Amino acid sequence: MVEIRVTDEAVDPEGATLIEGMPGVGLVGKIATDHIIESLGMTQFATVRGEGIPPVTVFDGSDRDVHSPIRLYIDDDEELVALRSDVPVHVMDAPLFAERLTEWIVDHDVLPIYLGGLPADRDADEVPAVEGIGVAEGQTNLDDAAVAPPEDGGMISGPCGALLSEAVDQGVDAIGLMVDTDPRFPDPQGSHALIKQGINPVAGVDVATQRLVDEAEEIMEQRQELAKRMQQADQHEASQVSRTYQ
């Protein structure tokens, strides 16, 4: 069983947009989501616990607070929700995780934006293009935001794939944003592209991203250990997009 435990009952996420930040290829989704949370000063209002979620505690270097590994945050206007995760969810547990999160999304009329990295060879200073796929009205949102569709077919695995699959099964509006990334390293440049080209126009927000470019080397060093753990883990623990060339 997977449970979403509300820690702040005063929060009302009804009608908000959700940004999903599970660890994946290049950590592009996680870095982007963490950056958005910090930039907007978002506050935690819920935790996600249960099967498939490692029973670990995480802490920041700047204080003594401890946290659950997967948390939900919300901005001051209660229009943007972010799912912050410091651990992967294994493929065997991803369907249950996706089912419970989708139930919460439906109950609160939330539009989810799922983030994925496309393994690719790319120069470190090259800004990649963002591609988008959608379920139901999610396609309209992408058209309105002028996000390009994929150039080629492919497959999405891991939690992101399970979440989009659940959206299809339930007929729930959903969006998937993908960006080329080097799977060997944390990729703040890819996260910068995800926010600037995808999340900002789709979610109707204006999150500055220059810090991801200016402090790319420092961010890469900070996230290198998690990136190594993701490479060593089962490939299906990480959300990953793979191309199928015709």
Automatic annotation (TrEMBL):
One Pfam family, short name: PAC2
Superkingdom, natural source: Archaea
SUPFAM superfamilies: Cgl1923-like (SSF159659)
Gene3D superfamilies, alphabetized: PAC-like subunit
InterPro entries assigned to the protein according to its UniProt record, in alphabetical order: Proteasome_assmbl_chaperone_2 (IPR019151), PSMG2_sf (IPR038389)
Disordered: region residues: 223-246
PANTHER family in the cross-refs: 3-ISOPROPYLMALATE DEHYDRATASE, 3-ISOPROPYLMALATE DEHYDRATASE-RELATED
Annotated protein name in UniProt: 3-isopropylmalate dehydratase
Organism annotation: Halolamina salifodinae
